[in-house]
Amino acid sequence: MNKGSELDCYLYYMWNQWNNSICVRIFGEMLGIHIWSKWIKACEECGSDGAPALFYSMLDYDTRKEIVNNALAHYNRA
Q1: Distance from CA of residue 55 to its chain's centroid?
Q2: What is the mean pLDDT of the chain?
Q3: Which residue in 2, 7, 9, 40 is deepest, having the highest Cβ count within 10 Å?
Q4: Tell me, what's the pLDDT at 1?
Q5: What is the largest CA-CA distance in the chain?
Q6: Distances from the Cα of 56 to the Cαs of 51, 52, 78, in angstroms?
Q7: Which three-class secondary structure state does DSSP give residue 70?
Q8: Is residue 27 packed enough to be buried (19+ CB in 10 Å), middle (13-18) or exposed (0-12)?
Q9: Is the pLDDT of residue 78 over 60?
Q10: How many other C-beta atoms can be found within 10 angstroms of the C-beta atom of residue 70?
Q11: What is the band of 70 on the pLDDT scale with cuts at 50, 70, 90?
């Protein structure tokens, strides 16, 4: 499923693919647990539909880029 923009990829990835095991796979055990706790906080505050926007704002540039790159790779596989 080819998504046209980084935003499309990010949102669909967060809604449909993102889970604790993917987070830990991408970031490792310690950082993954920390990032996953931010995701849970965003979900508690905004619900699962709004959580991706709040979560994105909670992350630093490198963490954001890593998630977006994984989303792009997932949805735009050749």
Answers
A1: 8
A2: 93
A3: 9
A4: 54
A5: 36
A6: 8, 6, 27
A7: helix
A8: middle
A9: no
A10: 19
A11: very high
Return all residues near 25 (Cβ < 8 A) that are at least 6 apart: 32
Cα radius of gyration rounded to whole Å, the chain:
12
Alpha-carbon distance of 15 to 31, in angstroms, equals 21
Q: Which amino acid is at 13?
A: Y
**How many Å apart are CA 74 and CA 37, to the nearest integer?**
23
Residues in the chain: 78
| Rounded (10°) angle between helices 6-16 and 29-58 | 120
Q: What is the 3-state secondary structure (H, E, C) of 4-68?
A: CCHHHHHHHHHHHCCCHHHHHHHHCHHHHHHHHHHHHHHHHHHHHHHHHHHHHHHCCHHHHHHHH
| Gap between the Cα atoms of 24 and 10, Å rounded | 17
